[in-house]
C-alpha cells in the first residue's frame, strides 16, 4: 500500500471503530486497539515506524500533549471536595496505594529496575471517564456507587496523568547523574513546568475572557498556543513540556468566570481525528512476540492488580465512610484502564528506548495487556456481580428534560414532588442558574456532546423530554438519545404546523418523537399558558372521581401531561398512546386559571 492509502485507511478505521463502540456501547479504546493489532502485527499492512519514520516521535508527543491538556481541563478542585469522602480518598490515598503496590509487585515479578517499575505503576493508576461511563451505563449500579465510579474516573484522569509525568520527569532527571544533581534537575523541571503552565493559563484565559480572538478562532488558537507552550517549555528545560501543558489545563479549569465549553466541545473532534488514529498506530507497533516475552510473571501481576491492589485501595479509601461490605466488593472489581495509560505509556516508552533504558520496550505491551484485560473482563462480569450483590438500580423511571426554561422547570418540580428522578439540561446559563435555585439537578451544556456522555448523571433516568425552543439542537438531542434510551422513550413537543412541515427534511426517527402531550400541544402554547398563570397540579383519580369527571371539571383548561399508576409508574399523555387513568392513579397536568365566565357558569 502507498503512504497515502495507509493514511486514508487509518482515518476510515478510526471512524469505524468509534461508530462500532457507539453501537455496542463499549469503550472505544477496545475496538481501536484490536483494529491496530489486526492491521499491524497480524496482517502486516501497517508499520508505523516505516510509514512515519522521523515524524513518529514528534506526532506522538504532540498528541499526548493535547490529551493531557484537555484531560486536565476537566479537573476542578471544588468538584473533588464536592463529591464525598470516598471519591476524595480514591483519588488521593487510593491512587498512592495503587501506585506503590503495583510498582513493588512489578519490580519483583518482572525483574525491572525500580525506576521502570515506578513508572509502570504510575501509568496504570488511571481509569478515566471514556472507559468508565459505558460500563456504568451497562451495569446500572445504584446511584451512590455510580457517582463514586463516575467522579473517580473524571478526577483521576488528570491527577494520575500528573503523577505519571512527575515520575517520568524524575527518572529522566536522575539518569546517569549523582542524586544531588538529579534533584536539582528535577526541581528545575518542576519549577519551569508549574511556572510556564500557570502563566500560559492566565494569559490564555485573559485572551479568551476579553474576546481577543474572534469566536471562530478560539478553539484553533487555544490548540496552537498549547502546542507552542509545550515546545517552548521543552526547549528551555528538556522534557518539561508535558508537565507544563498539564498544569496549564488545571489552572484554566479552576479560573473563575472562564467559559471553557467551546474548548471542551472541540475535544470531541480531536478525539475522533487525533486520538482514535493514535491508538491504531500505537497498537500496530506492537508485536505478539512482545506479549509472549512477558510470560507468566505478567499473568501473576495482572491477577495482583485485579484481586489485591484495587481491593486494598478501595478498602483503605473507605475507612470512615458509610459504604457497606457489598458496596466495597463491587467498587473493588470495577477499575478499567483507559486512554491516558495507553497514550502516555507509548510516548514514555519511545523516549526511554531512545535513551537506552533496558526493558523500556516492555512497558507498552504490559500496559496494553492491563487495558484489554480490565476492560474485557470487567465489562463481562461486573453486571452479573452487581446483580448477585443486589446493587443494580431498579428500572429507570426518571426523565432527562432538555430545556430548563420556566415552563420546563415547573414540569420538573411537579415530577420531583412525586419522587420521580429528573435532570434538566440546557445551554443557557441563566436557565440553569434558576433551576439550581429551585433545587433541580442540572447539566449545563449540550446533552448530546461527548462531555455530556462522560459527565452527565443519568442514574435512575430512562426517558427524554425535549421541551426547549432550540430548533437546531432539538433534533440532534432527540436522535442522540434514541440510541441511549430507545426510540419509544424519547418525546418532543410539536413546534407548530409550519415547523412540522420543515421537519420533513429530517429523519423519520426524529419526526416520530414529536408526540409529547398531544399533537395540538406546542412549546409556544405551553410557554404562553404558563406565562398567563397556568399551574402544574396533581389530581388523584378515585372511585368517586373518574377520569371522565376530571375531563368534565377542567375541560380545555387542562393539559394532561403524566399519569402515575398505583405502582408509581409514570405514563405520558401523547399522540401515540391513549391513556385511561384508573382509580388509584394520579394525573399531573398544567391547569389554566379559571376565567370569570367559567366561574359564573360553574356556579350557575
From TrEMBL:
Its main location: membrane. GO terms for biological process: potassium ion transport; proton transmembrane transport. One of its GO terms (cellular component) is plasma membrane. It is found in: Cell membrane. It is a multi-pass membrane protein. Residues 399-480 form the RCK N-terminal domain. This is Sodium:proton exchanger.
Amino acid at each position: 500500500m502507498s503512504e497515502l492509502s495507509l493514511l486514508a485507511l487509518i482515518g476510515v478505521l478510526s471512524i469505524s471503530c468509534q461508530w462500532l463502540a457507539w453501537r455496542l456501547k463499549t469503550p472505544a479504546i477496545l475496538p481501536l486497539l484490536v483494529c491496530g493489532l489486526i492491521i499491524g502485527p497480524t496482517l502486516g499492512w501497517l508499520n508505523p515506524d516505516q510509514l512515519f519514520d522521523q515524524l513518529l516521535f514528534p506526532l506522538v508527543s504532540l498528541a499526548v500533549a493535547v490529551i493531557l491538556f484537555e484531560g486536565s481541563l476537566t479537573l476542578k478542585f471544588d468538584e473533588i471536595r464536592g463529591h464525598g469522602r470516598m471519591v476524595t480518598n480514591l483519588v488521593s490515598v487510593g491512587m498512592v496505594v495503587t501506585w506503590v503496590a503495583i510498582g513493588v509487585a512489578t519490580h519483583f515479578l518482572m525483574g525491572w529496575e525500580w525506576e521502570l517499575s515506578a513508572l509502570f505503576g504510575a501509568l496504570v493508576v488511571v481509569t478515566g471517564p471514556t472507559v468508565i461511563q459505558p460500563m456504568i451505563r451497562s451495569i446500572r449500579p445504584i446511584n451512590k456507587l455510580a457517582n463514586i465510579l463516575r467522579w473517580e474516573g473524571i478526577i483521576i484522569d488528570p491527577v494520575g496523568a500528573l503523577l505519571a509525568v512527575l515520575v517520568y520527569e524524575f527518572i529522566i532527571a536522575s539518569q546517569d547523574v549523582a542524586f544531588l544533581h538529579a534533584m536539582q534537575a528535577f526541581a528545575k523541571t518542576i519549577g519551569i513546568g508549574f511556572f510556564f503552565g500557570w502563566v500560559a493559563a492566565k494569559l490564555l484565559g485573559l485572551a479568551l475572557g476579553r474576546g481577543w480572538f474572534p469566536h471562530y478562532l478560539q478553539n484553533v488558537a487555544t490548540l496552537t498556543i498549547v502546542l507552542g507552550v509545550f515546545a517552548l517549555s521543552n526547549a528551555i528545560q528538556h522534557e518539561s513540556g508535558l508537565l507544563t501543558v498539564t498544569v496549564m489545563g488545571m489552572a484554566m479549569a479552576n479560573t473563575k468566570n472562564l467559559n471553557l465549553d467551546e474548548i471542551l466541545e472541540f475535544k470531541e473532534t480531536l478525539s475522533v481525528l487525533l486520538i482514535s488514529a493514535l491508538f491504531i498506530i500505537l497498537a500496530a507497533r506492537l508485536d505478539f512476540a512482545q506479549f509472549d516475552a512477558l510470560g507468566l510473571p505478567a499473568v501473576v501481576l495482572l491477577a495482583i492488580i485485579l484481586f489485591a491492589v484495587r481491593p486494598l485501595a478501595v478498602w483503605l479509601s473507605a475507612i470512615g465512610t458509610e459504604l457497606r461490605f457489598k458496596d466495597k466488593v463491587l467498587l473493588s472489581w470495577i477499575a478499567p484502564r483507559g486512554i491516558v495509560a495507553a497514550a502516555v505509556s507509548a510516548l514514555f516508552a519511545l523516549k526511554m528506548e531512545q535513551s537506552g533504558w533496558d526493558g523500556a520496550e516492555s512497558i507498552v505491551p504490559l500496559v496494553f495487556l492491563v487495558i484489554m484485560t480490565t476492560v474485557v473482563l470487567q465489562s463481562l462480569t461486573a453486571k452479573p456481580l452487581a446483580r448477585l450483590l443486589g446493587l443494580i438500580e431498579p428500572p429507570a423511571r426518571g426523565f432527562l428534560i432538555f430545556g430548563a426554561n420556566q415552563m420546563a422547570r415547573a414540569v420538573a418540580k411537579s415530577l420531583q414532588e412525586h419522587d420521580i428522578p429528573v435532570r434538566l439540561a440546557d445551554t443557557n446559563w441563566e436557565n440553569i442558574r434558576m433551576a439550581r435555585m429551585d433545587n433541580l439537578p442540572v447539566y449545563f451544556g449540550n446533552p448530546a456532546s461527548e462531555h455530556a456522555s462522560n459527565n452527565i448523571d443519568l442514574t435512575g433516568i430512562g426517558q427524554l423530554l425535549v421541551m426547549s425552543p432550540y430548533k437546531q439542537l432539538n433534533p440532534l438531542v432527540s436522535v442522540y438519545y434514541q440510541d441511549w434510551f430507545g426510540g419509544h422513550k424519547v418525546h418532543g413537543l410539536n413546534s407548530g404546523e409550519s415547523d412540522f412541515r420543515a421537519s420533513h427534511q429530517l429523519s423519520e426517527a426524529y419526526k416520530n418523537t414529536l408526540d409529547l402531550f398531544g399533537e395540538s400541544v406546542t412549546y409556544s402554547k405551553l410557554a404562553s399558558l404558563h406565562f398567563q398563570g397556568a399551574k402544574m397540579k396533581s389530581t388523584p383519580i378515585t372511585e368517586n372521581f373518574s377520569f371522565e369527571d376530571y375531563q368534565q371539571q377542567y375541560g380545555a383548561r387542562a393539559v394532561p401531561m403524566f399519569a402515575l399508576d398505583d405502582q408509581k409508574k409514570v405514563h405520558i399523555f401523547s399522540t401515540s398512546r391513549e391513556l385511561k387513568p384508573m382509580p388509584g392513579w394520579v394525573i399531573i397536568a398544567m391547569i389554566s386559571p379559571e376565567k370569570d365566565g367559567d366561574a359564573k357558569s360553574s356556579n350557575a
